[in-house]
């Protein structure tokens, strides 16, 4: 059902004995978790409002932190917020949709902000699956480091040759790891380690 912002505000454990919170415009009854969400609980700031952004930032002590607006956060962070909402759906009773609000209009239909959020989550899921498939295809190097001898990376004989692999996520941030490739080739995103021969299995 649809829950108005005014109704959500009343369920603060004082005006109404129950504790409700919203994340991504989805309202949950968290009364059974009173020791966490009650007045003395560490998550009391989330109650009676939609503070979605704070689930990522941890800033639930100010109105600026406790906001439903997640603009500017990377796709991976939005996927994590979706996983938070899924946690509440598994562990707490879902009351309904907050409407009107940031994520649903007065009829409970998705707003442009919700559609943008869902699209970003799908991008993040696709990227995560692609990275996992790449990591399985080209396994990580083995590595060790000591203060005396420095760092060392290597690939077992059947795993290939160690290379510094450079990729970028949908947010443009670089991802660097040591991966084992089955051939001696190298490129802009598959680099040799300094001082390491192309056919070396240990660098």
TrEMBL record:
It comes from the Eukaryota. One of its GO terms (molecular function) is steroid binding. SUPFAM superfamilies: Cytochrome b5-like heme/steroid binding domain. One of its GO terms (cellular component) is membrane. Keywords: Lipid-binding, Steroid-binding. Signal peptide: none annotated. Residues 3-99 form the Cytochrome b5 heme-binding domain. Belongs to the cytochrome b5 family. MAPR subfamily. This is Cytochrome b5 heme-binding domain-containing protein. It comes from Micromonas commoda (strain RCC299 / NOUM17 / CCMP2709).
């Amino acid at each position: 059902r649809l829950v108005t912002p005014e109704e959500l505000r009343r369920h603060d454990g004082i005006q109404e004995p129950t504790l409700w919170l919203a994340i991504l415009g989805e309202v949950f009854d968290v009364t059974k978790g009173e020791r966490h969400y009650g007045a003395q609980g560490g998550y009391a700031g989330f109650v009676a409002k939609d503070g979605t952004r704070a689930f990522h930032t941890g800033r639930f002590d100010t109105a600026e932190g406790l906001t439903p607006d997640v603009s500017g956060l990377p796709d991976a962070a939005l996927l994590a917020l979706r996983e938070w909402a899924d946690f509440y759906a598994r562990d707490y009773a879902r009351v309904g949709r907050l409407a009107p609000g940031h994520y649903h209009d007065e009829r409970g239909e998705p707003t442009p902000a919700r559609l943008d959020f869902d699209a970003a989550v799908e991008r993040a899921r696709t990227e995560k699956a692609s990275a996992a498939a790449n990591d399985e295809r080209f396994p990580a190097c083995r590595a060790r480091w000591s203060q005396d001898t420095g760092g060392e990376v290597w690939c077992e004989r059947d795993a290939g040759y160690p290379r510094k692999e450079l990729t970028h996520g949908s947010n443009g941030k670089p991802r660097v790891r040591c991966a084992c490739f089955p051939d001696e080739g190298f490129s802009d995103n598959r680099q040799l380690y300094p001082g390491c021969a192309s056919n070396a299995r240990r660098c």
